[in-house]
Design goal:
It contains 9 helices and 2 strands; from the N terminus they run ααααααββααα. It is mainly alpha-helical. It has a single domain, classed as Hypothetical protein af1432 (Orthogonal Bundle). Strand 1 and strand 2 form a beta hairpin. The radius of gyration is 16 Å and the shape is globular. The N and C termini lie far apart (38 Å). Bound molecules: fe (ii) ion. The site of fe (ii) ion (FE2) has 5 residues, from helix 4.
Length: 187
Amino acid sequence: MRERILGFFPRLKEIEDTSLLDSVIEVWEDVLEMTVFAIDDLGTRKIPFTLLITELVKNDVANTTFVEHVNEVTEAALLLAASLNRNDAGLERDHVIAAANLHDVGKLLEYSVVDDKVVQNESGRKLRHPFLGAAIAFRRDLPLDVIQTIFGHSKELADEKRSLLCKVINRADFFFFHPIRDLLSTS
Ligand SMILES: [Fe+2]
């Protein structure tokens, strides 16, 4: 399974801290054991990257897949972090990759499939994917800033409480989400 996960998320191979990489892979393995989706579904449109857009376009899904979204956020976060580091931000590249890669891992636990449609399940409605992902990550040996980013990248955490890493992933995430949402909701 490890090689499949690395195949879906190629930037993971650039994590230099091997124990951090192992922990990231363990989180994916944990979640893939619990989710209704198979690993083969990961790179397909079976898993929407957001149900908010799905609702907007009347249960058709956005063309961007879950894996594409995660990888796009990782690219944007790396660019933003590099720029900030030129200004002495001190962001650790390994942490940027790990946090971007795992920020939406909880979505695999937030979704269920009913009548061939992906819907938000009770865990998703009551806890949402940021908490679900952070809860799994907390059981593994990940830096607290990475776990905070999973928990706080969306609306669960006020901006002033976010670490710089968490802000970077929040901005990278919404850099894509808002324009795609607006595009699809007006088309
Ligand atoms: Fe996201």
